[in-house]
Design brief:
By secondary structure, the chain is an alpha/beta fold. The protein has a domain of about 220 residues: Rossmann fold (3-Layer(aba) Sandwich). The protein has eleven helices and 13 strands. The strands form four sheets. The chain has a seven-stranded parallel β-sheet, with helices on both faces. The chain has a two-stranded parallel ribbon with strand order 7-10. Strands 8-13 form a two-stranded parallel ribbon. Helix 2 links the parallel strand 2 and strand 3. Helix 3 runs parallel beside helix 5. The longest helix has 21 residues. The structure holds UDP-4-deoxy-4-formamido-beta-L-arabinopyranose.
Length: about 350
């Protein structure tokens, strides 16, 4: 084994796919999750894919004493990947204190314990949200961090600053901050995927649920933007590709290859795709129509953002491999599996 990695939020969408890739790479994994936005059945799905059942601790990262006991029991921990956070843009506007407390206290707890237990590598799950509306696309890691448009985005910006400020001499661990663009899709086995609670906030789960007939039609939030077809543009990245980047980041730190105490990488495809293009591509790939209507813009939406990914390509040695078509096909296969299992 290459060492033991603690993955907070490991039963979540990106977390679960990352656990699979960590196990595939030879790491032993301990999942910490409070199941506030995921289900313990995900652990079974991971085991069905890899044949290895990760350790699962049903814990909240705001529970310092519970976390400390876990470090004492499971140690030594070589690395930590911290996904656990509340992440709905709209909800963060309604419940700012929940977002600041949950997202920042959980981070501070993990950072204290990583220092105390001599962890070597820390991967932090950040987001392209920190860029706001970029002046230039594709946006690279040196672009200015713009004032956040919502408490969720602000917690990511503050978290990045805390990690930078805390990386003082003597800190036992190096950090890599990964700024995701828009993660989509599901594991090709359809054993794990995105399972949003309630009405999906994100585009692709809403598309697949509409295609399945669970939702009557998709609302496209605006077609009057300054883009070729008027709808917003994003950089949609396959979730398995994204998960593999986390293994590359951990390997880099645990093999002592970090160039500096804190490194930042964009994780995207480098290509921008509009909402209407994504809908058309989904219909082409699946043969299923997606009824939609154009409605007003959604507050806080960025007009267009896609990532410059040369740094991740050249330094991490990572590049997104999956096409948009293949990725959309995995999302639909996952939605069909949920229907087959009577889950949706
Ligand atoms: C994408 C596009 C919408 C739903 C957020 C977070 C980001 C990350 C991903 C956590 C936008 C449009 C959407 C719908 C629509 N979160 N849309 N109808 O807002 O780019 O990013 O989620 O890691 O950090 O900021 O993603 O999927 O919500 O929206 O027209 O029913 O789809 O307007 O243009 P977003 P999204």
């Amino acid at each position: 084994m290459k060492g033991k990695i603690l993955v907070t939020g490991g039963t979540g969408f990106i977390g679960s796919h990352t656990v699979v890739e960590l196990q595939n790479a030879g790491y032993e994994v301990v999942i910490v999750d409070n199941l506030s936005n995921s289900n313990a059945d995900v652990v079974d799905g991971i085991e069905r894919i890899t044949g290895i059942r990760p350790t699962f601790a049903h814990l909240d990262c705001n529970d310092m004493s519970g976390l400390k006991s876990l470090f004492e029991k499971e140690g030594p921990i070589s690395g930590v990947i911290h996904f656990a956070a509340s992440k709905a843009v709209g909800e963060s506007v309604q419940k700012p204190m929940l977002y600041y407390r949950n997202n920042l206290v959980s981070l501070l707890n993990m950072m204290d314990l990583m220092a105390e237990f001599q962890v070597k590598g820390f991967v932090f799950s950040s987001s392209c949200t920190v860029y706001g509306e970029p002046d230039v696309n594709p946006v690279d890691e040196n672009a200015p961090v713009k004032p956040a448009l919502c408490p969720y985005g602000n917690t990511k910006q503050i978290a990045e600053e805390i990690i930078q400020d805390a990386s003082v001499p003597g800190m036992p661990y190096n950090s890599i901050i990964l700024r995701y663009f828009n993660p989509i899709g599901a594991h090709p086995s359809a054993e794990i995927g995105e399972l949003p609670n309630g009405v999906p906030q994100n585009l692709l789960p809403f598309v697949t649920q509409t295609a399945m007939g669970i939702r009557s039609e998709l609302s496209v939030f605006g077609d009057d933007y300054n883009t070729p077809d008027g709808s917003c543009i994003r950089d949609y990245i396959n979730v398995v590709d994204l998960a593999k980047a986390h293994v590359k980041a951990l390997d880099r730190m645990l093999e002592g290859k970090s160039a500096e105490p804190v490194e930042i990488f964009n994780l995207g495809t480098g290509n921008g795709v509009s909402v209407l293009e994504l809908i058309r591509t989904f219909e082409k790939v699946t043969g299923v129509k997606v009824p939609y209507k154009i409605v007003g813009r959604r507050d806080g939406d960025i007009e267009k953002v896609w990532g410059a990914v040369d740094k991740a390509n050249q330094i991490l040695g990572w590049k997104a491999q999956e096409t948009l078509e293949d990725t959309l096909a995995t999302a639909w296969k996952w939605q069909l599996k949920l229907r087959e299992q009577g889950l949706m």
